Amino acid sequence: MQQVRDVNGTQLAIVRPASGGFPRHSHDEYVISTNLCGREAVRLDRASFDVDLDEVTVYNPGQVQSCTTRTPDGTAFACVSWYVPSAVLTALTGGAPVDFERPVVRSAPLRAELLRAARDLPGGDPALIEERLTLILLRLLDLAADTGGAGWSHPDTGGAGWSHPGTRGAGRRSPGDARIAAVLDRLRGDLSSPPSLAGLAEDAGMSREHLIRSFTRATGCPPYAWHLQARLAEGRRRLRRGEPVADVAHALGFADQAHFHRHFTAAYAVTPGRYRRVNI
């Protein structure tokens, strides 16, 4: 394993098995994986199947798995694996047990999000990584999980919000809408520092997971990421007014000028210094 990182009680890792594959084994956690390089021939309990590069695998705790792999000549097999304790999943379902019925989900967006989280492991923003991984779990619950009944709802929604696939009403407004509006007002009102996800959730009377999901439904991205983009947009305005890069970074709560530089360049494909020079 390389680049193992603890993320809110889970472990995210890039795995390169020396043998190129895995002998029969099992895990106490859910294991969510996608391949970086190569394809797998998997044996999971009594089932056999192939896993391609555009797929995500989801294995339940205790399932016995093994695989052989195929890679292009001169390359080694590698995958991103995320180890998720049962308590993390049941926290999302209000205590309902989770059993993933589909071990393979073909979803290029999900794969891209998992790879993005792994790519950001060294030096990445922990809050952004946590949000991204939470959204992956929520999507997998919709796509591949059985929660022990015809439908399930998160305790924060009183049955009006999250549901098992096929039961969610189109366009339904949830009781969280007013609370999400209040969260947006709070985020807009203070661009001087990164928000605390736990604090936002407590003020809104929601769990962190439900806040992330409801906020993303309303705005298209989770709260920490939304606030980061708002801070960067404010940074652009300040740079156009000619404010020094270091002052802008400090005023908007970035740890240092390099931190601001990295996020600004990733968002706008231009450094803040160059942006300032061509706009004043």
UniProtKB/TrEMBL annotation:
<feature type="domain" description="HTH araC/xylS-type">
    <location>
        <begin position="181"/>
        <end position="278"/>
    </location>
</feature>
<protein>
    <submittedName>
        <fullName>AraC family transcriptional regulator</fullName>
    </submittedName>
</protein>
<dbReference type="InterPro" id="IPR003313">
    <property type="entry name" value="AraC-bd"/>
</dbReference>
<dbReference type="InterPro" id="IPR018060">
    <property type="entry name" value="HTH_AraC"/>
</dbReference>
<feature type="region of interest" description="Disordered">
    <location>
        <begin position="152"/>
        <end position="175"/>
    </location>
</feature>
<keyword id="KW-0804">Transcription</keyword>
<dbReference type="GO" id="GO:0003700">
    <property type="term" value="F:DNA-binding transcription factor activity"/>
</dbReference>
<dbReference type="InterPro" id="IPR018062">
    <property type="entry name" value="HTH_AraC-typ_CS"/>
</dbReference>
<keyword id="KW-0010">Activator</keyword>
<dbReference type="GO" id="GO:0043565">
    <property type="term" value="F:sequence-specific DNA binding"/>
</dbReference>
<dbReference type="Pfam" id="PF12833">
    <property type="entry name" value="HTH_18"/>
</dbReference>
<keyword id="KW-0805">Transcription regulation</keyword>
<dbReference type="InterPro" id="IPR020449">
    <property type="entry name" value="Tscrpt_reg_AraC-type_HTH"/>
</dbReference>
<keyword id="KW-0238">DNA-binding</keyword>
<dbReference type="Pfam" id="PF02311">
    <property type="entry name" value="AraC_binding"/>
</dbReference>
<dbReference type="InterPro" id="IPR009057">
    <property type="entry name" value="Homeodomain-like_sf"/>
</dbReference>
<dbReference type="InterPro" id="IPR050204">
    <property type="entry name" value="AraC_XylS_family_regulators"/>
</dbReference>
<dbReference type="InterPro" id="IPR037923">
    <property type="entry name" value="HTH-like"/>
</dbReference>
